[in-house]
Structures are given as C-alpha cells and as structure tokens.
Amino acid sequence: MPRARFHPQAWVNDYAITVDPEGEVEWEVGEEAASLTDDSYESDDLRFHPNAPDWVKDWSGPFYIEILREEN
C-alpha cells in the first residue's frame, strides 16, 4: 500500500528550506494515492488524511508530500 512522506519546511529569505519534523513523517494512504504526483496540489491534500499525524495536519509552514510506492 502506498505511503505518504511529509517534508516540513520554513521560509528563510524567501526560500523554503527543510526543517526538522515534529514527529512521525510517514503514514499509509489508500491505493488511490498511487496515481498522485509528488509535490502537487493533489498530494498536498494528503496532509488531512485520517492516518496523517496530528502535527502534520496542524503544520502552518510550507511543505511538500512525497508518495512512496511499493516496488514490484
């Protein structure tokens, strides 16, 4: 089953830079997420997935989400 990986960021001099996460960064998502593109508006909505950690749902800074797919 695909998993989502959250990459938290912060703005520094108008650039989004990676920052340390506040907890777990991966969670299982449904098979429908397998067709999503990393770092897209559609994948961004996965931060509100029921399996997403609470801190991810509450994140107020920039971020991107990567879709982890199982290799066959």
Number of strands: 4
How much helix, percentage-wise, in residues?
10-25%
Low-confidence stretches: none
Structural class: mainly beta
Describe, in plain words, how this protein is organized in 3D:
The chain is mostly beta strands and 72 residues long. 12% of the residues lie in helices and 32% in strands. Strands 1, 2, 3 and 4 form a four-stranded antiparallel β-sheet that branches. Strand 1 and strand 2 (15-18) form a beta hairpin. The chain is globular and about 35 Å long. The N and C termini lie close together (12 Å).
Brief synopsis:
The protein has 2 helices and 4 strands, in the order βββααβ. With 72 residues, the chain is mostly beta strands. A hairpin with a 2-residue loop joins strand 1 (3-12) and strand 2 (15-18).
Salient structural properties:
72 residues, mainly beta, 4-stranded antiparallel sheet, globular
Any chance you could write out the topology, listing elements then pairs?
Blueprint: E1 3-12, E2 15-18, E3 26-28, H1 41-44, H2 54-58, E4 63-68
Antiparallel strand pairs: 1-2, 1-3, 1-4
